[in-house]
Description:
The chain folds into four domains: 63 residues, no CATH class; 99 residues, conserved putative lor/sdh protein from methanococcus maripaludis s2 fold (Beta Barrel); 89 residues, Efflux pump adaptor protein, beta barrel domain (Elongation Factor Tu (Ef-tu), domain 3); 111 residues, no CATH class. It contains seven helices and 32 strands.
Amino acid sequence: MTDTPQTGLPSAPAPEALLTITPSPRRVPLVLLVAVALLGAAAGAAGTYVWLGGSADVHKGAQHTYQCPMHPTVVQDHPGDCPICGMKLVPTDEVAPSATVQKYQCPMHPGIVQDHPGDCPICGMKLVPMEDASPRGERKIAFYRSPMDPTQTSPAPAKDSMGMDYVPVYQEDLRTDAPAVDGLAPIKVDPERQQLIGLRTQPVTRGPIGGAWRTTGRVVVDETRVHHLNLRFAGITERVFADYVGRPVRRGEPLFSMYSPDLLAAEQEFVSVLRMRDKPGGEAVVNAARRKLVLWDVPSEDIANLEKTGVVERTITLRAPASGVVVKKGVVPGMSVAAGEMPYEIVDLSTIWVMADVYEREIRHVKVGAPASLFLKALPDTEYQGKVAFMDPFLDPKTRSVRVRLSFPNPGELRPEMVGEVVLRTTPHDALRIPVDAVIDSGTRSVVFVAQGQGKFTPREVRLGLSDGDLVEVVAGVDEGERVVTRANFLVDSESRLKASLQALSSGGAR
């Protein structure tokens, strides 16, 4: 049995694999063994296993590598910390290929991922567990971006001005089809996150649309029912009966009485000529005197009473020309009034007008005589029925709308300057329709997000038609049966815009 010299070699992981000495017919000098031992120690420090045999052949072993458990793409040949998450690197042979680590992700910021529960450093939301993905091989990092500002990117791990680590953006997240809508990209939302943000979808259906248009209306006075009381002679007010504004009056009701020297002289002249009626030409004189009183708006009852009794009254009582409400009163007792003045204005409110605006794109659907409904916040349980009475022949260049006048009978509850909702009703037509809430209108285009299945949502630009307030007609862009996002679509839109911007940054190269 040959003695094995002590060479000072470090202990190897495999007790029989690091150093094996085959018996030899001749003894090796001690100096040579020490030199070989030193070479073996150096090779062992470099990660190479050495076998010494009878022929002194040296074979190289496998080199150790270290990997981050959270970021498998971070690999190096010596121990250390992950530059992304700060975790200790572990040898690659200790990481099982099929082992899965539970990760937690922010529902609003998918780039925030960690291996333990916590809060998102951006929005403060609770991190939720991520679903285990099926093995798909090594993920390749495209670049790194700031979690606070997606426009700040770097080709290598870095920190932003707040000391936060940049998060990786993988190539597979950027490998999507070209956006169907400029500035937007398809996204994928897992079911748990859909439930968390309240995402809902509804199908595109076909049915009647365009039977009603809603707009705001303002109650105004019917201009055809405004009455003025004008004086044809001067005088002095004696007594006022309708003594305040807002007082309701009926046709023929006394308003005020006045003394007029001119009218008194005309009445005395009429009584005088009555005695000449039986003489030749007397009837013509009587008719001329009566005609003068009529032209001065002396009531026919007063003329008949004057002709019957022949007694001239000192004052004359002026009566309301129509039923309504006094909206102007310009006389008080003892006041002198001149011919041509308007002491009273009376408005009949039995019928009122409602002024509404119809937008340019809806003018063709509104016709004179079309039925309409009026709803007031002051009377929410009452619906007033009316019709379109007039459409302005001119378009307002500022609002791009046409003023429409509607006529409504007033049961006594409607008052001028009330504001309510007007529903214009026409014959509906059959068309594709979606909820109004599904449309994201930027002013220049209308976009909806269509569900493609498996949590994928694609932006789609649509062309819209008529709307009744709840549903809107879709002329082009979607097909019947497709499902569109109706709730949380603004969150989906933000995510789509962010992904489209990342794609643009990737296509131009990471800064």
